[in-house]
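Hi Y.,

Following your request, here is the sequence exactly as I used it, all 439 residues.
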Amino acid sequence: MIKVYFKQALMLMRQNRLFSTLYIVGTGLAITMTVIVAVVYYVKLAPVYPEVNRGNTYYLSGTSFERNKDGRFQSWSYAYSYRALQEWFYPLKNAREVSASTFGAVKYIQPSDRSGDFPVRIIETDPAYFRIYAFSFFDGQPFTQSDLESGIRKAVITDKLARRLFGKENGVVGCQFLLDYETYQVCGVVRGASHLTTRSYADLYVPYSTMEGYRDPAYSEVPYCGPFQVTVWVEDGKQGKAMCEEVYEIVRKQNLLHETDGLKMNIEDDPVSHLRASLMMSVGGEDGNWWRAVRYLLFILLTLLLVPALNLSGLIASRMESRLPEMGIRKAFGGRRSKLLLQMLWENFLLTLVGGVLGMVVAWVALYGCREWVFRVFDRYTWLVPEGTDVYVSGEMLFAPSVFLITLLFCLILNILSALIPAWLSLRNPIVCSLYEKR
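Below is the corresponding structure, written out as tokens. Let me know if you'd prefer a different format.
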């Protein structure tokens, strides 16, 4: 029976080419926008390489201190210092891994062929960073805890940088290069991350102990402010909640300790999960209200669903009027309303399916071709991508099963909303009215 419905649908598509074209194009545009929104937020939120532990990852980006004493107000704000790492975060009991790192500074490499200095993005971090972020190593391994403690200038570099420096990505462990005129030794080569995974993207990763003055606080008055951001990986949501309570207790004790000198510590929304951090960076979460970002996203999806459905319903209603005599004859010969309605749904589903495939292809082309800005369109802050930055969209990002299922579900809902109501209203007409319809 379904095969018969599809044959009839193909015949009607050839007979009503204008209607079919408008329907397919309208559906395709709706699917295109839906796929773009779905892929953009999939890349932001889903576990993609190398940030595969996003669901159980928390961030602490910085703290602020205030003092209001004797009518004099002072304030300090920054990320965390080395002392804060040692006293507060590395000893956390409710954490699987704790990593501290700087956030993508730019330095310059002096190549051995003297072709000219070129900039690279560098993250100064610790060995735990490579346990949280699942980098795939072509060669070598991460630097060790003893390397960190001794301040040895070792580096994990990406395959792209390895090819640029040494012409290959394997067999370069132990090779040396100059970074800001300091000699570093390669200890590992990894498959590089995309600029879209902002927490892990860099060209090379070195121990933070190679930084000059990494133990020094940013302010002499407040020893807990410094250059480090903290990433915490927990087992599950229960441990994540316990970890947050542990951090809140640290803040409470600090404020009690400095109550007499009027110094007050504040960590704002930290620790913040990856989900909340990503949504707070969206346009709808500009004031830190991540639920507003959720409502904003739902509003976009609802608009993409309802507006095309209403337009397509108008097209279908007009088409149904021209088919009333056909429906009347079929009902007169014993055609049941449910069977006629099912046929209409299958006919429109075929059109919706064709439009959906077209929309997905257009969306993938747009996402790949405009990847340097389309993935930032929903961000609160946008910035230009630096020249030479690796902004690529992997197959894992584009062809994710969840995005495909969302698109398929969207096609089904769009088909039902646009076809069911006008078809049902038309089939409710009495047989006599349908037979005498002259349009």
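Residues 290-322 form the longest helix (33 residues).

Thanks again,
Q.
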